[in-house]
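ERR on first pass: missing label on line 2. Operator R.T. fixed the label and resubmitted. Corrected input:
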Amino acid sequence: MISTDNIIRTENLNLWYGEKQALYDITMGILPNKITALIGPSGCGKSTLIRCFNRMNDVIDKCKITGKIFFYGNDIYEPGADAGEIRKKIGMVFQKPNPFPKTIYENVAYGSKIQGITNKNELDNIVEKSLKNAALWEEVKDRLHESAMGLSGGQQQRLCIARSLSIEPEVILMDEPCSALDPIATAKIEDLMSGLKKKYTVIIVTHNMQQAARVSDYTAYMYLGKLIEFGDTDQIFENPKEVLTENYITGRFG
Amino acid sequence: MVMKIRLPQKSILTKKFIKEKGMKIILFLSAISAIIIIFSIIIFLFRDAYPIFQRIGLGPFLTGMRWNPVGQPPLYGAFPLIIATLLVTLGAMVIAIPLSIGSAIFISEIATPRVKIIIKPAVELLAGIPSVVFGFFGLIVLTTWIRISFNVPTGETWLAGSILLGIMAIPTITSVAEDAISSVPREYKEGSLAVGASRWQTISKIIVPSAMSGITAAIILGIGRAIGETMAVMMVCGNPAYGLIPQPITNVFAPIKTLTATLGIEMGEVATGSNHYYALFGLALILLIITLIVNILATVILGRLKEKQRKSKKKKPVISYEFGRKIKQTFYLLIGTIVIAILFITVGLLPTIGIITLIVVIYYLLRKISVKVQQRLAFSAITATIIIVIIFLGIILAYIVTNGVGALSWDFITTGPTNLGRSGGIFPAIIGTLYLVAGAIAIALPLGVGAAVYLHEYTKEGIITKIIRTGADLLNGTPSIVFGLFGFAFFVLYLKLGFSLLAGQITLAFMILPTIIRTTEEALKCVPQSLREGSYALGASKWQTIQKVVLPPAAPGILTGAILGIGRAAGETAPILFTAVVFSDFISSSVLQPVNALPYHLFTLATSIPGSQQNQAGTALVLLLLVIGIYFIAILLRNQFRKKMKW
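pass 2 clean. output:
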């Protein structure tokens, strides 16, 4: 999908955890306002790859990267690049809902507060808008000042989505956002995703092939740290070009 | 036709059954030993303190402004001593809290793994230095430095005590706070970074607030440690007559006399059964009550923390979040008011206003500067704290090594002292310490392991385990000088053992018992449940399973606990001061004779034998090498153990 429209593009991306190489020579382009799914068996490197897009791997010791990742043509791994600024533009939702041990309101306002916004009205508006966009407002509007830990797992995950929307990023990375949720909560998140792509670019890692087929526009299949095939979701699922992809899709392994 | 198999009935007469029941009873008895000991301590202190309350009244004893038991008339006013203890502790905390929390943040969040591997054991090393060695260093180096650099008549002051106690409390606070910070889930950190927060914003707004209750508990434990410390305080605080408190109360260059120092100094020269004797037990009782309260507070906070982590969500809190926040705000407001009030009393109105404006201005300036500069400033400050701690450690070690190495020789460790210890060696003290430690561990190890096995293998978490654990925690927080007084009252006098090796051994054993219980429990926790189930599935009984399957893999962990206990026992002075030691060159041949010991030898040389400088430093070095060597082995073992324990 390499094209001039790419919002994120990787070139010859290699990654090592210590001695062990986890990604091999990944070159791919992400198109704006689309949902791109990364699929593949456990340990294939899909989570590692998505964590490269907002430099979340910086947190991990002994992680080494070569190659380039461009965001609007700027290399995010350039020596002078500020990871914080990049993460404001490229938000992330994690596998396990991870609200802070604060109130619902504080969770959503956190990102704006650390950017220096202190005006109460402005914060109120941001919180309301973000929660509405994450389809959570109706459920929590009467208890904004209660602890976020009291929400259900699905609500917590939508709160985390609201938190990442609050700073108006351009891209949202979702690392298996539904793997800790039950089917009903999963359906709610999936509904939400198709709405989100009007404004945002979404990249989602998922274990669940039906989910990838249901929600995504493009699908990338990874295996053992390599990008095997990347294309239109319909094409990948109905007419894969690579044998490895076909084996995985048809459930012959993995 | 189905064959019927008759299962053997449980019989109370089998050997196996008797053994199982017997073991359970023995283990139960070891488990409640900690409770029995802490209660005996309270009872015996109270028994010997009661007469003074009866004779002069509890009120006058607590509020009397003069302490002069040998005067005419004798005065028994504990108030200045209590105030002195609080002042020294307060000063120590002013030093220890910022340094420890900075160090804890550095170790858990900022240090690279390679730096962490060096820094963490260094801070732990600080915990391993015996308090008498701190006292020796303080007496010779710190007080001289204070006298010269502040141009005061004597360096033996409140300030000296606070600095020394502050340094001694650092490892306690750092290690508990670091545990708390490290156990903040990584998800919180990632969630914060993912919305573009800087590392410092993440640390200051998410990680530290989430770890706040653990950090509070760490500070409280540090306070407990500082209040209970005897030897170092006694050697550097000057101990003025009447126990007078500083005039004005903020004069850090005044000598000061704490509760523990009073006990340490006067207990040795008091006539048993005199008013003075009872009054000292009164002081010990006050000291014990203060430390018990402090430790119960820490235990409650840590206990609630664990519960919160276990149950985490879905449980509605007893007080609403909003209300909780209001309580917190009121609490901070209160602290702020107190700080301002103290400032106002000490420096007057105008400077107070000046300082407050300055703080407000700095606060707003800090908010104006960029996130990056904020982070750089904060990280520099935090790195500075750990550097200061390492410098403290370096100075103390360097002083003792450079001065002590001259005295070291084969003769020094193999011959007895001559000329009151000014020359000759320290052989009897080494042997005495070995005897004391061997006896203490021989008593504490079976008792402690038994208690831990009972707690972890035989009971479900409930009231009984809670009580036993609380008992062990309280015993752990009991000041060593209180063990000394208890040992004197119970073993030396009541059981008529006299000043003897045996009395010292048992007293030390009681002191290290909680360490052994706790480390053994940790080791047992690391043995996976599946091993036990595997053994039961083969028809093994409980005790057989414990003996053959649970204890062997836990052995290295238990050994680590034992070694830590040995290190602590080897370095302690206060518990043996009134139970076992005499300053002599003879080697006891029976457990009913007194002994000399390395820490006591050093204490006596440093405080009462002028002209023995070289041998003081030599003794300090030998003691330091012994204790640090022991800890080093424990740390190595623990690392080895951790590597192996990845099931």
